[in-house]
Amino acid sequence: RDSNDIAPFKNIMNDMYAKDISRKIKSAKRQRAYRGMYIAAQAPYGYKVDPQDHNHLVIDEAVADVIRLIFAEALAGKTLSAIVEELKKKQITIPGVYKAQQGESRFAAHLNKDADQQISWQTCTVAKILHDPVYIGHMVNHKCEVVSYKTKERRRVPKEEQIVVENTHEAIIDADAFTRVQEILRSRAHVHRHEFDNWLQGKVYCADCLKPMTLQIKVHKKSKRPIFRCIHSYKYPEECNGYRAMDYDRVLRLAYEKIVTETTNPEEAPELTKTLMRQRVDRVLVGKRQEDGSQEVQVLLNDPKKRKRKFALSLFGEL
C-alpha cells in the first residue's frame, strides 16, 4: 500500500520518542535517589514504607528484633551458619514468608512451603543483612540499572558507583556495632576461587537433598584433584544424611559413557568435549557411598532432537 511508504519514518520517530521518555525517567529517578528517597519496589526486611510518606522508611517493630539478634550474634563471633541455626531454633520465619504474611502478593508462593522450609534461613540471606548499611539509617539506591530501553537488560552497579545518602531514616543498628561487624567479617578466611574449567557446571546435584553440588579442589600433599561435594550435607547432616562426594573425572566419564550408549552407532562415538557435555547432559544425581564401596549415579540426558528431558538408567561403578 502507498501508506506503508511512511512507515519507516514513523518507526524512527517512535523509537526517538521511547528513547527520550527513557532518558527522562532515568533522570527523574536519579534525582530522587540523590535526595535519599526510598524508590525501590519493596522495603528491606526490618523496615516498612511510611504510610504518611511512601518515599520514606520506618522501622517494622514486628521483625526489628530479628535484625538486632542477627547483629548481636555476629558481634559475639558466631559464624553465618551458627546464626542460621539460631534463627531456626527460635522458629523465625524467613523474610519471604513474613512478607507474604503481610499481604505482598509477589511472595505468596512462600506460603505453600512446609513448616521446615518456612524457617529455612540461608547464610547468603544473613550475610546480605549484615552488609546492608540501610540498618544504620543510610539509603542505598542505584544498585542496578537498565542497560537499554530496548532489551530491558539489567546489570549490577559497582558499589563505588551506587548512590548512598546517609541518615535518611531511623537506624535499627548502632553505627559502631555495624563497623565492628564489618571488621569481623573481613577478618575471616575466604575460600580462594579456583580456575578449573568445570564442564558440568550447574548440572551435578545431590540425589538426597537435590541441592547443587560444589566443585572443590582437594589438595593432598603435592597432588590436587577436583571433586564434587554436597556442601548442604556437610552443613546440615540432619537434612541430608550421608557424606556425598565424587571425583570430577569419574562423574565426567560416567556422563560420557551414557552419551555413547545413547548414540545410534556406538562405533562413531562423539569426541569428549565441553560443548558435548553442556548440550547433552541435563543433570547428574550423585548418591551416597554404599557399604560395598559402590556409589549410585543417575545421568539424565537432553534429547538432541526433541530437546526434551529424558531419564536415563542408573549407572553403577566401583570407587
Commentary on this structure:
By secondary structure, the chain is of the alpha+beta class. It has 10 helices and 14 strands. The longest helix is centred in the first third of the chain and has 28 residues, at 7-34. 18% of the residues are buried.
Could you write a compact summary of the structure shown?
This protein is of the alpha+beta class and 319 residues long. Helices cover 35% and strands 20% of the residues. It has 10 helices and 14 strands.
Largest sheet: 5 strands, mixed
Strand content: 15-25%
Total of helices? 10
* Content-based structural category: alpha+beta
Key terms:
single chain; 319 residues; alpha+beta; 3-stranded antiparallel beta sheet; 14 strands; disordered C terminus
Mind sketching the topology for me?
Elements: H1 7-34, E1 47-50, E2 53-59, H2 61-75, H3 80-89, H4 95-101, H5 115-118, H6 123-131, E3 139-141, E4 144-146, E5 154-156, E6 163-165, H7 175-187, E7 204-206, E8 214-220, E9 223-229, H8 231-235, E10 245-247, H9 248-262, H10 274-280, E11 281-289, E12 295-302, E13 309-310, E14 314-315
Parallel strand pairs: 7-11
Antiparallel strand pairs: 1-2, 3-6, 4-5, 8-9, 9-10, 11-12, 12-13, 12-14
Helix pairs in contact: 3-6
